[in-house]
Amino acid sequence: MSKNENALSIYALGGLNEVGKNMYAIECNNEILVIDCGNKFPDESLLGIDLIIPDMTYLEDNREKVKGLLVTHGHEDHIGGIPYFLKKINVPVYGTRFTLGLIELKLGEHKLSRETELKEINSETNLSFGKINVSFFKVNHSIPDCLGIVFDTPEGVIVHSGDFKFDLTPVNNQYSDIHKMAEIGKKGVLLLLSESTNAERSGSTPSEKNVGAHIEEAFVKATRKVLLSTFASNINRVQQVVDACIKTNRKLALLGRSMVNVVDVAMERGYLDVPEGMLIDQNEINELPPEKVAILCTGSQGEPMAALARLSTGNFRGVEVLPEDTVILAAGPIPGNEKNVSQVIDNLYTLRANVIYGSGKGMHVSGHGYQEDLKLMLTLIQPKYFIPIHGEYRMLYHHRLLAESVGVEQENTFVMGNGDVVDINDGIARQTREIHAGNTYVDGIGVGDVGEVVLRDRKQLAEDGMLVIILTMSKRNGKLISNPDTITRGFVYARDSEELLRDVNKLITKTVNELEHERKRQWGDIKHQLKKTVGQYLFQHTKRKPMILPIIIEV
Amino acid sequence: MSKNENALSIYALGGLNEVGKNMYAIECNNEILVIDCGNKFPDESLLGIDLIIPDMTYLEDNREKVKGLLVTHGHEDHIGGIPYFLKKINVPVYGTRFTLGLIELKLGEHKLSRETELKEINSETNLSFGKINVSFFKVNHSIPDCLGIVFDTPEGVIVHSGDFKFDLTPVNNQYSDIHKMAEIGKKGVLLLLSESTNAERSGSTPSEKNVGAHIEEAFVKATRKVLLSTFASNINRVQQVVDACIKTNRKLALLGRSMVNVVDVAMERGYLDVPEGMLIDQNEINELPPEKVAILCTGSQGEPMAALARLSTGNFRGVEVLPEDTVILAAGPIPGNEKNVSQVIDNLYTLRANVIYGSGKGMHVSGHGYQEDLKLMLTLIQPKYFIPIHGEYRMLYHHRLLAESVGVEQENTFVMGNGDVVDINDGIARQTREIHAGNTYVDGIGVGDVGEVVLRDRKQLAEDGMLVIILTMSKRNGKLISNPDTITRGFVYARDSEELLRDVNKLITKTVNELEHERKRQWGDIKHQLKKTVGQYLFQHTKRKPMILPIIIEV
């Protein structure tokens, strides 16, 4: 295959076979445009890891080609990795007014505000990078000011959907621009990348307006104060809470750092309309009659340190949940958070609050398109080639079936993984090669990445604890000077297991003496043999495999 | 309050404010009857714990009063703690024929078969313990041969519902005996204890027969082999799989230890009707045409070591999932298992199997009664007093509302926790006191229980790893003989952090020398000061708090 100078390559560094850490790229004629740079939150098996971002080695190795980062919207799984990206590759960041507001908060935390070039765009902006012209279209999602992206390349038009649903009765005029998409599709699209989060769910995503109606009803019914928890970034829902406050003549307090910050950004930049004097400080809550107060707070995922969890256990200074208060969880639990959320609900009931939660109550709708929404996008854009993105394997798989059902040829859909590359040459797309992709673990601040070795160690320590063996040996003849010492942590409670540890000590002495007898005096040999012998003994007697850490002191 | 000699006490040692480890007791005139003894499985925050059982200290302290253990049915959350109970308190165990079959498997594993007295009962059995007469009634649940229990005491009749739903089209004639319950209710019941698992769900629980229809449909449609995974103990569902095999002329193989064991017990004891010659060995699977084979396997919760997970990754010796095979997950994920289940589904799709899963597919119904079922039980039994059992707080809370809605006086319902006691004296119930209750952690075999200290250590090790500091000091003058050594595990990868560790070493030397200067030579002082100084330093530079373990060697 001879490669023409206009050849295009498309790949993901994150977002395929996972929900989270979205990062896609388009490469043409020595120019790379990056789309989004998100993080994802680790599950419990990644012990003590704070977050996961895409491994960006490939981009670092091609740093001079990278021309810019285009951001579709301001959710963490699309912007959470940006500070780490910019520390390595400092290029301009393009986003809408609201998206940039959220990115600025992040840059401030990482002290990157000064050296970063932020460029504001909107759905009418046209950009040009070498041979690629870039334009945009509005999409509706659970955060304001979202975009899909159109790349006009010498090979043809590539469309990236962003995260979207079609909400025909949107809040705050945040609509998906069906007319513009129809026009783009009519001109001919070579390739569509479209998000797959809800590809398993049949029907159409319900409108955000439905949630507003349920919120209003609950506010009207409530005889005392109302607390509502939702994602801070869902400003359209926040607007509906504000509207319910107007309707029921309540003042509104905001609790939780991210709620305060994001609402601030939204008000400042004109995405949220709050009447003068409605917002009150948290210390004013107790000064008003309870039926005149509403509270909007973080913690809808049951996060133990967030406002709602602290309120539910009476640990939020100055604010209390009292009997007959109404508490609304206006968010579904993200898979993995169910237990934390249940715990918070239990605690709220113990406080005798009236708790409104669960899927039947209409207090939450998804921001991601269901099957009918996804089919509508495919129908409007009518691409020749299709790459389902943003989803676990079964979601990508179902999205492929949807594409087939609306006329995309089966062999023209690429269900692929992070690092897989689709090359387009003379109008023909092929998936044959891959680039390096993977996870980078971020752990604390300042130490850098955590490797697999450290994670494996933590896992073993977590499951079975450890046993430290201390041998004091003579420099002169390599013999044990005193009885070995052993220390356990997280393994057995030493006081309960004196006998076991006594036997282990005897076994250690015996093992070391045998080695000495065989003239094996290399520390490596001794440590290896101790790990093996003691490990086997402990597993036999306790069914546990603690980490064994022999330490040799020579005196 | 003068206590008459017939006074009754009722309490739970497990099962309240949790789903799992059910254990209830009725005490009258120095006799204690125990109902069920279950376990529960730990969540990820309890690192390396195998299972949790009720703390039975109270029963041990009153061992001579305990007259027997009555078991309502054979699920793990009702029988999983029995071996641990019997090791401490050896009393007869009463259960139906199928329930005893499952208990026997468990006793075999713990080598307790010989010394345990198992007494078979059925719904017509009458037992007598001192002043208490005990009888039973059939209930329908997701395992065969379940009972509710009636305690006829001098104070009045106490009813325990067992786990139940009302399935009016039951499989294998496993019905809930509405007529008998009506009779019991008509005679007058003082107190009902009823299970609350689905108290949040409106409507009636669908019938198990519905699942059978969907299974049959999938079997008929399948063009190659069918794999179905469900809970091994759901023998009624297994019967429907057998029926689908008859219908589609397939042989059936069983994979997974518990599936083989439980089906064995069910066939031996007459709870499962399998035609002669239908069951095949797993090594016969590949000898038959694929459309003539079905496989029933464990692992519906995505457990990484169970059959389905191993099949999904191609790690089950001798059996493969091939393209176009049909795989049915006939079980909903228990909260906390969602991620593991999703992983298995993703892997099965990668093998290009046709996977049937999710709530819309009709392949699973709950065994626990929804709100209408719970109200029917309350209506049939029409108790004066009510204790909702078997559920987290919000479930117990909703069950109380249901009781109110069918006429139980609000103040006559006791929503309580493990260890809370309801005393009944001259027909009046009061909840004023508590006995000791709690969790006992079981970890491996042979070491006994794991304490809070060990768990806390594991937690810290898991999150942030550890740093071992080795100081070699002179016996003569208490001074450092050489530079301190440090070893990290699970904290930072030593090669990446040489500088940090070098600075820590300097800090250690400085700290020890300062203490020496102040003549503080007590090892306790040195260790305490090192933990503090080094801990602060590391947190400042890494935002991590590894366990710090100073070891002093005197030479």
UniProtKB/TrEMBL annotation, chains A, B:
Q: Which keywords fit this entry according to its UniProt record?
A: Cytoplasm, Endonuclease, Exonuclease, Hydrolase, Metal-binding, Nuclease, RNA-binding, rRNA processing, Zinc
Q: Which SUPFAM superfamilies match?
A: Metallo-hydrolase/oxidoreductase (SSF56281)
Residues binding substrate, per UniProt: 364-368
- The UniProt record lists the EC number as 3.1.-.-
Domain (Metallo-beta-lactamase): residue spans on this chain: 20-214
Q: What InterPro entries does the database record attribute to this sequence? A: Metallo-B-lactamas (IPR001279), RibonucZ/Hydroxyglut_hydro (IPR036866), RMMBL (IPR011108), RNase_J (IPR004613), RNase_J_2 (IPR042173), RNase_J_b_CASP (IPR055132), RNase_J_bac (IPR030854), RNase_J_C (IPR041636)
* Root EC class: hydrolase
User: What PROSITE patterns does this protein map onto?
Assistant: UPF0036
Q: Where in the cell is it found?
A: Cytoplasm
Which family does the entry's similarity section mention? Belongs to the metallo-beta-lactamase superfamily. RNA-metabolizing metallo-beta-lactamase-like family. Bacterial RNase J subfamily.
Record-linked NCBIfam families: MG423 (TIGR00649)
Q: What does this protein do?
A: An RNase that has 5'-3' exonuclease and possibly endonuclease activity. Involved in maturation of rRNA and in some organisms also mRNA maturation and/or decay.
Q: How does it assemble?
A: Homodimer, may be a subunit of the RNA degradosome.
Protein known as: Ribonuclease J
Whose protein is this, by species? Litchfieldia luteola
Q: What is the lineage of its organism?
A: Bacteria, Bacillati, Bacillota, Bacilli, Bacillales
